[in-house]
Amino acid sequence: MTEKKFDPVIVGFFCNWCTSAAADLAGTSRLHYPASIKPIRVMCSSTVDPVYLVRALQEGADATILGGCHPGDCHYITGNYKARRRVAIVKTVLKSLGFEDTRVLLEWISGSEGPKFARVMNDYTDYIKKCGPSEFKYLDSLGGEKVD
Amino acid sequence: MTENEMLKKFIKDAFEKGLIEAVMAPSATQDSYTYALITKKEDVDKITPIAPVMQWNGADMIRRITKLKKSERKLLAILRPCESRTYKELVKFNQINPENIIVLTYDCPGTVHARNYKYEPTSSEKLIEDMKSGKISKKVRESCRVCEYPTPIKGVGDIGLGIVNTNEPVFFSLSDRGKEFLAGMEISEGERDDSTWVKIHRENREKWLKEERITGGRKGLEEFLSSCLNCHNCKDMCPICFCKECFFEDHSVFDYESNKFYNWADDKDGIRLPTDKSLFHVGRLIHMGTSCIGCGLCQQACPMDIPLYRLFGIVGDDLQKVFNYKPGVNDDIPPVMDFREDELHEFEGLFGGEE
Fold it and tell me: Would you say the pTM of this structure is higher than 0.80?
């Protein structure tokens, strides 16, 4: 059998004011972060309906990241507090049904934290590589036997 | 005098005294019971205040009445305890204007599944008899057997009618408005002890929460929902799903070019269609789980008899524990409408907010 190396797909919803700026900074500072991260720029972490997180997971992502400003630093004053509640709901639902709740990650990365951005993306990709493909993406499909 | 006759007399007296101008209560139809709105004293005999079936959630009906404008007449709504909690929750969500509405609720004997009732009719008197002897009738729905609050709660609704553990049913007030109303009716407030009736249900519930949980991730969920038709009846009947436009009703959200489907089928070794079937339930849980009242109408509405309340009730219970929130029993703000600055750090970062 040919061994296929598992290359995860990680969808990142990054807030326009902090985490997206940090992604830019990481790029201009020539810090390396894996290509498995597919960034989507949103205006605020609270604009992401929690359903989009699970929808990304179902449509083929192995993990999702929601990146926002540090608590208290939100451009819209309170957006990231609401985002935190929503992530708490998603994670609880996934855990309660027996899925891995680590497939959803909430991180606070401010615009000046380019190195932190690169580190978090590297660490998380390594972690997901170790975990293997997400079970959630095989929901309502015929496949999904575990491959090493 | 049966409880239903007593309530009818109560309503007639209230009409005579001018305390109310309209009543919303269940009324018998050929095969079931539906809510009826009456405005005349002569029509009171057409209603059955305590029905053996709950086909719709009464709070949802009040939401329709007060959708555009507050109630213009003094309305007495006769609701079950779960409906009165829904009423309270919908008031918090600004879906019901409580002005001019008096809610009367009572010790609930449970309700029969609407479809079972159609083929095997029973009467509320029979259910109440079972309740008085301290046992839950075998005929009642699963969600009623594991109800967390089967009796009126102080602060939820206005007037309570105590039936268990008392020779004669007693009225008592649940709010200041209810106190005024009962004083206007010249009824003295009584007391009764409902703790045993509540205890039976709570014990059932504890057992149920442990045993009926859907586990096993993908396999468990797929097995549970295997016969789902994606008809969205559970959403339509859910009183908490009040959005004008549902994310999952807008099918254009799930429109893709054909290649997308073929690619998925390549990647996932075949996909089942429609692709949003299980996602609909997970998504609905995320949207309304924190406020799931436990009326169990999702389960009653399911044409394929999927015990959906096990999904929404148990996962909803987990969600409510995270936020330390009980929907509809007190004045706490629903979790989705509120936030704290210092909370939920265990959900930040990969391993619980370290760094």
Answer: yes
